[in-house]
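Render this sequence as a predicted structure.
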Amino acid sequence: MTTRFDRLALLEAFVRIAERRSLSAAARDLGTSQPSISRQLAALEKRLGVVLARRTTHDLTLTPDGRTLLADARRLLGEWEAIEEQHTQDTALRGTIRAIAPVALGQSLFVRAACQFMKSHPDVTVDWQLRDDTIRFAEEGCDIWLKIGPVPDDTLVVRELARVERLVVGTTECLAAHKAVDLEDLPWLTLGPFEGNRIELTGTEGQSKSFSVTPRMASNNIFAIHEAAKQGVGVAILPRWFISQDLQTGALRDVAPDWRAARLAVNLALAAGTRRPARVERFCETLQSWCETELDLPSR
């Protein structure tokens, strides 16, 4: 294999092997045989002079060299696809978008945006994974990572989509039961990734308030904290978009109208690169549009 096209084919086979963690599964995906895929992997390893993957009876894992190549291969293949799109007369978007989104936004606002996009572009499919933990972008094989809060990877291109307002909320019954209690002494329900045991608020005049709490309930899941707040167990800091209907119906009340928790950024992270497939860029534009409509815009 000596041509540039052949080298791209080798990289495509390697990426599929890495994603499927199986030579036979990668072969099925690419419509070839397992021996052929094995030969392509061996040819790529020989060309580069490194071992890219280690195989056992039941699994295949990448070596450190393999993990490094995987990030480069995905970027190169994406750029090649973008070049093909630029020089073809067929302008229809097609292919798969692989996205990782936060659980709450991912099963509400963002999934509605994804559905609208798929309706407008019937040849596009979406692999939609919901996770709140920090990922290793290069190893996940995703095109887009939607993240609440900072993106701890300076190798990625990060676009801020919005900053969401967060307020302290509770039920009327909970407040009535603690009407003579200061804010810091209320029973608190906290989201571990954001509040933990420390509450930090900013007043309408720019003043700050910070205090430690012993949570009545702590969780890493926003739905659990939301339900506990609605059950009157305590007060919680929740984003306005998430509890807007509760505020309208009176199921939850704004406990401290003069105080707000720090706004959290909604970020979109992409692999660095000069070109991306058109479907990815257009999907990012759709997500931005939905955030501008449904969420507060970031401060500029």
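Summary. The chain has eleven helices and 13 strands. The longest helix spans residues 64-86.
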